[in-house]
Amino acid sequence: MLTEGGIFVGGGGEGYATPQELLLKYGNRHGLITGATGTGKTVTLQVLAEGFSAAGVPVFLSDVKGDLAGLAVAGSSGAKLHDGFMKRSATIGYALSYQAFPVAFWDLFGQQGHPVRATVTEMGPLLLARLMDLSEPQEGVLNIAFRLADEEGLALLDLKDLQAMLVSIGRNAAEIGLRYGNVAPATVGAIQRQLLVLENQGGTRLFGEPALDLADMMRTAPDGRGQINILAADRLMSSPRLYATFLLWLLSELFEELPEVGDPDKPKFVFFFDEAHLLFDDAPKALVDKVEQVARLIRSKGVGVYFITQNPADMPDDILGQLGNRVQHALRAFTAKDQKDLARAAQNYRPNPAFDTETAIKEVGTGEAVTSFLEAKGVPGIVQRTLVRPPASQLGPITPEERRAAIAATGLGAKYDTVIDRDSAFERLQARAAEAAEAAARSAAEEERLKEDERELKSARRYDGRDSGRSTSRRSSRSDSVATAFGKSLARQLGTKSGQAIVRGILGSLFKSR
Asked: 3-class SS at 169?
C-alpha cells in the first residue's frame, strides 16, 4: 500500500502503466477524482483514504451512499469480489492484505455517528447567507445582526439565538438604521422565513454546542495510523445546500485554525469533498473567488483537498488548475455536450505518446482510470492507463452492530452526545425584554397614579394651593420605553466597543487566535 514516500494507487499488466503512486510530499497539492456513475470513484477514494491513514495522516470524507463505512472493517476472503480482487492484485504486482482502519463516525443528525455541530457565531454571515440563499439586502441585515452581537458580547450559538437577535433588530429598526442604514421589517421577516426552512432541513441540529473541536478529527491511532473521519451524508444529501455549506465551513475552519507549515514531508490532514459540484452550483462569483483563495492558500497549512465529482467541467477553471493529482475514470459521450466535456477533460492531462487520452477515457472499464500524479519538483506526470488496486478494507456498508462498536471505540461520545444550552443571546435578550417590560409597567403605573392625583386636585378634594401639573422629570419616565432604552444602550455600546468586534476570516467564519 505504501511505497517509499508514496501511496501505491495501481498499475497494470501489458498495455498499462508502470506502478502509479501519489507522493506524500505532494499530497497537499490537492487532487481530483472524476468519472461517470458506477466507474469506480468510490473505490479510488477508499484506496487513497487507506493510504493516507497508513502514512499517519488523518482524513475526512463524506459517505454519500453509505458504502464507505466499510473502512472500519477488514475485507474478507468470503466477499463477493474477493476472487476478482486477488486476480487484479496479481496483475499489478500488489500483495493484498485485508485490514480495518481507525474510523470515527460523525452525523449531523446524531444517528449514525457522533453529533457534529457548529455555533452560529463560528459559521459567520457569509456562509449562512449562502446556506439560506439570501438576497443582497437580506445578507446586509444578517451582517448587521452579527455585528451587533459581536459588539455587545451576545453569543449566537444556535438558531433561536439568531432568531431572537433578528426580532430585537426588527423592534428597534429605527435606532439601528441611523447607524447601519435602513432595516426594513419585510427584510427581517424574509430572513426569519428562511431560518424556518433551514430548521425544517435539519439546521437546528447543526447549530449548537458542544461545537466540533478540530483536534478530535486530527487524531492518530496508537499504532500511528491517521484517523479516518466519515460523515454520514446519505440523509444529509436531501438538503444539498446544507451539505455543501457545512463542508465549506469545515474547510474554512481548517484554514483559519491550522498554523503555516510550508512544504511538509506529508500532509497534516486530507479533506475529500464528494459531490463537489454542489459547492459551485448557483454559487455567486464572490463565494467561488473565496473558495479559490482558500484552496490556493490552505496547502501551506499542510491540508490536501481532493474533489470528487462526475465531470471535470463541474469545477471552475481557476480551482481546476490547482489540482495536481488526478484520477479520471470513464466518461460516456452520448450527446454533443458529453463529447465536448470529454475532449476538455482529455486536455487537462500531459499527453502520453503511447495512446490517445480522449480515447482512453472512453474505453477504461470499472476500476480502471487514466491517472496523473505530481512527480519530482511538482511536475505533472504523463497520463497513464491504470488498474486501481483493490481496497484492504471492506467494500460496502457495515452492520449496525459494527457501526455502534466503532462509535463506542472512539471515546468521543461523552464529549459530543449531550447538547449543551448555555446562556447566550436568546436568554440575554429575553432578560432585557423582561426588564424593559417591567420598567414600562412601572412607568405606566406611575403615570396612572399621577393622573389620579390630577383628577382629585381638579375636583378640589385635596387642593393645597400648589400647581397641579405633573413634573417634567416624571413625564420623561414613560419616554424610556423598550425601544428608547434599547437605543440609548446601543448608542453607549457602539461608542465604547467600536474596536472590539470579533475578527472573521476569508469565508466569514470566526477567526480563533492560536
From this structure: helix
